[in-house]
Amino acid sequence: MKDIVILGSNFAGFTTAIQLKKRLRNKREYRITVVSPSNEFLYVPSLIWVPFGRRKLNDIKFDLKPIFKKKGLNFIQKAASKVDPDTNTVFLTDGETLNYEYLVVATGVKMNFDVVDGLKPEDHKIENIVIPKLAIKTKDAFEELVKDSGPVVVGATQGASCMGAAYEYLFNMDKELRKRKVRDKVDLYWITPEPYLGNFGIDGMPGGENMLKMFMKMYNIKWITDASIDKIENNVITLKDGQELPYKMSMLMPPFEGADVMKDSPKLVDAKGFVEVKPSYQHIKYDNVFAAGLAVQVKPPFEIKNTPFGVPKTGYPSDVTGKIVAKNVARLINGNDKLYEKEWGKIPALCVMDAGHKEVYLLANHLFRPRQFAILVPNVFNDLGKIMLEKYFLWKNRNGLAWLP
Ligand SMILES: Cc1cc2nc3c(=O)[nH]c(=O)nc-3n(C[C@H](O)[C@H](O)[C@H](O)COP(=O)(O)OP(=O)(O)OC[C@H]3O[C@@H](n4cnc5c(N)ncnc54)[C@H](O)[C@@H]3O)c2cc1C
Predict the structure, then answer these.
(1) Are 230 and 279 in a shared domain?
(2) What atom in ligand 1 is closest to the CA of residue 317?
(3) In DSSP terms, which residues pair with 42 in a beta bridge?
């Protein structure tokens, strides 16, 4: 038996596994094994709704085991601890090892809380919505805020890349505070490393800055761009320019780095633990190693002059890169050395930003400039698109239809 090992089972890992199995249906000598500490698929984008009770975790996840079994995929529910690409070995945290002919890395990210003192969850100062247990804790903090209101700071630290989700959380918080009739007791601040509102780490979209400014004014939210945090103390955040922002509650998006397993596999990654790949998502040195989704190294295609920030890696390109990797591994196995290429920045932009009972569609032919087509389409009546996308994505994956867009 020849082994293909996929590390990670969410957007990128799941798509790669299902697609690869389909492409290799006639190659019975190949066994595909997915390794992940979690047996659940989690629709991460809906974590923004968990703090406001609009979604419970059970609404946005499903058990992967039945679908993997049905598709004939081997699943090991364990975490990998490191990879040695010279001996084609994956080490698991329990000491077991796996050998592979091909390896796909889709292990997502780890948050870097060291970027500023006081940011760590155990410091009990700043809330976070990136992982389920912290999103649930943020719900408790929000309920406290409703009972005993005061100023709120929402945003992203220097070096962050996932500003879009923080914007969504901000607008949903404004909406929920109004619904609970305490919005007038809350001074709401938005702080971001972006040089201008709506940069989103992709150098903006036409009309984006004006639209975001309009939302901020309409919702009475004060904003600070190019913000770099100096320190976080109990009830006050100090920026590097000396501004002090008092807060009763705060949610800040930290920067992301590669998962520990990849940081501990230095031959495959850059200094931040992201896998260095060619436009085919094949590793730059190891031809039998591929990466997809958040695990991939993506350099900003523009110069960052002041406060550092990163490029967002959203669900659609994570799914697309999973499909490209499946296509390319299958090509190599079928003796075709000409790999399909699509640089990250040339993948189309397809995203919905929830703006609290409103939403904005971000559509462009390329994620990064130059783009021949880029448009923001607001829907001011509801956020039905965001809801439909969640339902579609969960339905598609629960039924193993990962080939759908
Ligand atoms: C709050 C929030 C809101 C977002 N909103 C949007 C949105 O509205 N639209 C959008 O397009 N994108 C959004 N994103 C981004 C989107 O969630 C990511 O692009 C997507 O999750 C990336 O998929 P991935 O498979 O690369 O990584 P992940 O989804 O993070 O999956 C990583 C996988 O690796 C596994 N893993 C981790 N460590 C190991 C290990 N040691 N060994 C083996 N497996 C391991 C995990 O169990 C998991 O299965 C949002 C992100 C956040 C945090």
Answers:
(1) no
(2) 19
(3) 61
